[in-house]
Design a protein that fits this description.
241 residues, alpha+beta, 5-stranded mixed sheet, 4 helices
Length: 241
């Protein structure tokens, strides 16, 4: 009797498997253990036919009961249910206790097919001989924006040309906690809690005190427009009643 392709589905896996109808139910369960991770004694199998009928694959004597006794058809589904209590199941999705391989830095340096090797060959990033001058030019450009825009702590401003994002400049300088950034940032306390933080990033506080309201935002100088931007009055435009 020819093998039949079926979809084997369990909580942690789903795959197509070829099933031999001459197998007993016991044989099937043994073969499904390495596929599903469920011991044979804890498997409850349901066959979902192509007509959406669900049939329990079970028998009083599963050693003698053959799969040919069930209406197997190509690409029907075998649903394998784990009957063990939750405390006895293995969680294959939790990788917190899995020991992870970390390649030693000197070994990675010697590899010729790594991203690091490609950067070296293409003279990118820190391997670019002009990188220091490029970084200085970037820093100088931020400093120029700060000077020409009149950005100073204590001044009123708006952010990104959005009239609703008004606030007060609280910090001007580098922010080490922002990955890969060089040059100055402008820390602004927005009038409305529409920011990204409360004036702190990580363990460093740049202004204010801890708050659940996120009034703080850090932006590059070119996004800051200094001027007389008073706090908006939400009731100002309301008609008299």
């Amino acid at each position: 009797m020819a093998d039949i392709p079926l979809q084997v589905i369990s909580e942690n896996s789903s795959s197509e498997r070829r099933i031999t109808p001459s197998w007993s139910i016991t044989q099937l369960k043994r073969k499904l253990e390495p596929v599903t991770g469920i011991p044979p004694s804890s498997q409850r199998i349901n066959l979902k036919t192509t007509s959406n009928e669900t049939i329990a694959v079970e028998a009083p004597d599963e050693d003698a009961a053959l799969l040919s006794n069930f209406p197997l058809s190509a690409y029907a589904e075998l649903h394998i249910i784990d009957t063990r209590p939750a405390s006895a199941k293995l969680n294959f999705n939790d990788v917190s206790d899995v020991e992870k391989y970390v390649m030693p830095a000197d070994e990675y340096e010697r590899k010729s097919d790594s991203v690091l090797a490609w950067k070296k060959a293409e003279k990118l990033g820190r391997f670019n001989p002009d990188a220091p001058s490029l970084e200085k030019a970037k820093i100088d450009a931020f400093d120029f924006e700060i000077k020409t825009r009149g950005i100073e702590v204590g001044k009123r401003c708006r952010v990104g040309g959005e009239d609703s994002r008004r606030g007060e400049i609280k910090y001007v300088g580098e922010v080490k906690e922002i990955p890969g950034s060089i040059g100055a940032w402008v820390g602004i306390h927005l009038d409305e809690p529409a920011g990204k933080n409360d004036g702190s990033i990580g363990s460093t506080r740049y202004w204010g005190t801890e708050s659940a309201l996120k009034h703080g935002v850090f932006v590059r100088p070119e996004r800051v427009e200094v001027g007389e931007w008073p706090v908006l009055d939400d009731l100002e435009d309301m008609e008299e009643i």
